[in-house]
Each structure stands twice: as structure tokens, then as C-alpha cells.
């Protein structure tokens, strides 16, 4: 009877481990997709407008204005942070079959914590600049630009949402990873 119970418990443990492993892979894949989407959308974000700035007689003088993500250091950091997190997630997914030792899991967990903070800080910096672009700053006499570059701001908003989703997924992934590490340590004791 005890042997049968231990076999059932062992089989249940293996099934739980497989489900947990699949959950970790799916969460990492979703985080990869979200951060890669944020990277690509913001990196390709550019809008050009031509406006008449003056008239000389009856001839209009037209000037071209361009909004690009490279014009704002916070957006450049945002793209870099999401790109690094995407590459990290891809690397972990590709190297997962070779990283079975406990030390690899710990370094993977620590790297995950770093990626959460990098993505969250990049998204926060970009969100601050997006707020400035949307509302401006009356005290500094900075006018909002989203009324003129609406497509640029809309794509930037999509990238921000994707990045915040990626940060949340990385945080959930990190929490599940922590619980898994703690349970594995408890089982060994």
C-alpha cells in the first residue's frame, strides 16, 4: 500500500513539474513577445508632417517636421531595455534544455529579476516622456506635440502598453520561479 501511494505521489510530482515547466515556458514566451513587440513598434516609430510656416506674397513657405524615437533619450533607453529583455528571454528559451543544474536556475532567476527592473525602468522613463508629449509643461513653456503627431503618439502608446505587459509577465515569471526554487530546496531538505 505504501509503495502504491509513493508511486502515485511520484507520478503526481512529475506531472506537476511538467505543468510548471510548461507554464514557465509559456510565460517566458509571452514576455518575449510583449517586449519584442514594444521594441519593434517604438524602433519603427516615425512621423513626418509638412506645415506652412509663412507666406511670402502668395507663395507658402513649407517646413517639414519629423518626430522619431531617436530624438528622445528616454525612448532610446526604452528600445534598448526592451531589446535586451527580449534577447535574454530568447536566450533562456533556447538554452533551457542545457540548463538543468540548480546553479543555472539561480542565475536564470537573478537575471530575470534584473530584466524586470530594466524593462520597468525603461517603460517608466518612456511613460514620463509620453505624458510630457501629450500634455506639455506649462511652467517650462513646453507645448504638447501629440496634437500634431498623433500617429507617432498612438504607436508610442501601443509600445508602452506592450512593455508594461512584458514587465508584468516578467514579474509573474520571476514569482513563479522563486516559488519553484523554494519548493525544490524544501524537497531536498
Automatic annotation (TrEMBL):
GO terms for cellular component: plasma membrane. The chain crosses the membrane at residues 20-44, 74-95, 107-130, 158-182. Residues 22-168 form the Casparian strip membrane protein domain. InterPro entries: CASP/CASPL, CASP_dom, CASPL. It is a multi-pass membrane protein. It holds the Pfam family CASP_dom. Keywords: Cell membrane, Membrane, Transmembrane, Transmembrane helix. It is found in: Cell membrane. Belongs to the Casparian strip membrane proteins (CASP) family. Homodimer and heterodimers. This is CASP-like protein. It comes from Phoenix dactylifera (Date palm).
Amino acid at each position: 500500500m505504501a509503495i502504491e501511494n509513493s508511486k502515485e505521489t511520484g507520478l503526481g510530482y512529475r506531472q506537476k513539474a511538467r505543468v510548471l515547466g510548461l507554464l514557465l515556458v509559456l510565460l517566458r514566451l509571452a514576455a518575449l513577445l510583449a517586449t519584442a513587440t514594444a521594441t519593434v513598434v517604438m524602433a519603427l516609430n516615425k512621423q513626418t508632417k509638412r506645415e506652412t510656416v509663412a507666406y511670402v506674397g502668395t507663395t507658402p513657405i513649407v517646413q517639414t517636421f519629423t518626430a522619431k524615437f531617436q530624438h528622445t533619450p528616454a525612448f532610446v533607453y526604452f528600445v534598448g531595455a526592451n531589446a535586451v529583455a527580449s534577447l535574454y528571454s530568447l536566450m533562456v528559451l533556447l538554452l533551457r534544455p542545457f540548463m538543468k543544474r540548480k546553479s543555472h536556475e539561480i542565475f536564470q532567476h537573478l537575471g530575470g529579476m534584473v530584466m524586470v527592473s530594466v524593462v520597468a525602468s525603461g517603460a517608466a522613463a518612456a511613460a514620463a516622456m509620453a505624458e510630457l508629449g501629450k500634455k506639455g509643461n506649462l511652467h517650462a513653456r513646453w507645448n504638447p506635440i501629440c496634437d500634431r503627431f498623433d500617429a507617432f503618439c498612438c504607436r508610442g502608446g501601443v509600445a508602452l502598453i506592450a512593455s508594461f505587459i512584458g514587465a508584468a509577465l516578467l514579474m509573474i515569471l520571476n514569482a513563479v520561479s522563486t516559488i519553484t526554487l523554494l519548493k525544490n530546496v524544501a524537497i531536498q531538505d
